[in-house]
Structure formats: C-alpha cells, structure tokens
Design goal:
Elements lengths: L4 E6 L6 E6 L7 E4 H5 L7 H23 L6 E11 L2 E12 L5 H14 L1 H5 L3 E9 L1
Parallel strand pairs: 5-6
Antiparallel strand pairs: 1-2, 2-3, 4-5
Helix pairs in contact: 2-3
C-alpha cells in the first residue's frame, strides 16, 4: 500500500508560502507558511497534520485492540499534542476518552497501551509517545 501527499513551496523561508495536498483530495491546496508553522498565521502546518494523523491512527488501533478483548466502543475521542524543540519533534502525547458501557478498566488500559505501541504512526515517530486514557463505562 502506498499513500501520497504533496507540497509546493515558493519563496524563502520567512516570506514564502506553500500548499499541501493529499492524493485523495481531502486536502487540496491547503496553505501553509512560516507564520502558520511558527506563529499564529491562518492555514495548516506539518506538525498539525502529523498530530491529526497520530490521533486518527491511534483511535483505529485502539478500536482493534478493544475488539480483540471483546469490547466494542461507542466512541473514541483522541487528541494528539506534538512537542517540537529545536526543530525536532520530541514528544507526542495522546489524550483519549473512550465510552464503553460496562467495560472492564484493566482490559481497557491494556488495550490502550497496546494501541499506543502498535499504532503505525507511533512507530514512525522517533519521539517519546505518552498516553492519558479515560474510560467512561
């Protein structure tokens, strides 16, 4: 399986700008720039896209791990927060709240930790991946 994303950049780092797109067309010509990455500009940035990818990947991995334990979640809500220091992503923190009526807390925590380690995006990062998991049973 191969998935593609593309970017076009024009100009120098501080005054230039670019667009980012995905093969599926979900992102098409979305603007990014120095200001969207390092200040408060309007548009996206690579780290925001990586955080969204990590949250989505982890949510699916957790759903799979829960299913293997006989648990079916009503909802999985995940936020990933990337930390960047000296132009290096050093940490991704996953904050997840899962609703599974009647679920066992121990099985839930095992599934969450297995998903954190097994998620393909977690494995992609050369960074510390941490997790806060909340179960609503």
């Amino acid at each position: 399986m191969i998935r593609k994303g593309s970017a076009v950049w024009k100009g120098n780092l501080r005054e230039g700008s670019g667009t980012v797109s995905t093969e599926s067309g979900v992102l098409a010509g979305q603007q990014y720039s120095f200001k969207t990455r390092f200040e408060d500009g309007i548009g996206t940035n690579p780290e925001e896209l990586l955080a969204a990818a990590h949250a989505a990947c982890f949510s699916m991995a957790l759903s799979n791990q829960l299913s293997q334990k006989g648990l079916t979640p009503e909802s999985i809500e995940t936020t990933a927060s990337l930390t960047m220091e000296n132009l290096t992503i050093t940490k991704s923190h996953l904050d997840v709240t899962v609703t599974i009526p009647g679920a066992d807390e121990t099985a839930f925590n095992e599934a969450a930790n297995e998903a954190k380690v097994g998620c393909p995006v977690s494995r992609l990062f050369n960074a510390e991946v941490t997790l806060t998991a909340k179960l609503i049973a």
